[in-house]
Amino acid sequence: MRAVINLTVHGIGSRTGRTLEPDEGATWVDVERFEQVLDAVAGRPDVRLTFDDGNASDLDTALPRLLERGLTAEFHVLAGRLGEPGRLTADGVRELAKSGMTIGSHGWAHRDWRRLTAAQVTEEHVHAHRVLEDITGEPVTRVAVPFGSYDRHVLRRLRRAAVARVYTSDGGPARPDAWLQPRTSLRHDLDDAWIARVLAPSAPALRLRRTAARLVKRTRGR
Ligand SMILES: [Zn+2]
């Protein structure tokens, strides 16, 4: 079975429309670089595109460029932030879904899922799904873990919520049908060498190292 490469896009462009969270700027990319990545991904069925955080640039910048190239992607939205400045609105999410994109959950309020109160667990894993399902009319079966922060407790909750696919930020290639899908995030300083390296056929040494890291996260408690 051929491995897949999962990419994560956050914000695109220079106008964010909101105050960024600490370290968030490191993941924003300019439009030209984003287009270069899309051009490199077009015609590569072994590369999957995912978008996190529900930024307005998902709709304004990413969607037309995806459609131009015949690409589809999964958008992991923050259900509790819809309609805030710089974020997608409910109508924007509906538009993405109508355009053939998949809508997944990035939770409610961009919290670390390893550090939730009982009330927050309900918001992040139950309420967020309901809100998105009401908008699109489709079940939410995929999630992207905020900050890539998970442990065995988080994974148990996601299994209980009947999530069919979990995207992390562990990097490296993935088995196409695995429940836990590592991803590699675009960075603000990505260049041609980054594109060539990340989209190159998987390197076995890298794969082994990443697998060891995943095992630690999967089994750790708090
Ligand atoms: Zn995020």
From TrEMBL:
Gene Ontology terms for molecular function: hydrolase activity
EC number: 3.-.-.-
Subcellular location: Secreted
SUPFAM superfamilies: Glycoside hydrolase/deacetylase
Keywords assigned by UniProt, alphabetized: Hydrolase, Signal
Principal place of residence: secreted
Matching PANTHER family: POLY-BETA-1,6-N-ACETYL-D-GLUCOSAMINE N-DEACETYLASE (PTHR34216:SF3), PTHR34216
Domain of life: Bacteria
Name the record gives this protein: Polysaccharide deacetylase family protein
Keyword Signal: yes
Domain NodB homology, chain residue ranges per copy: 45-222
EC top class, as a word: hydrolase
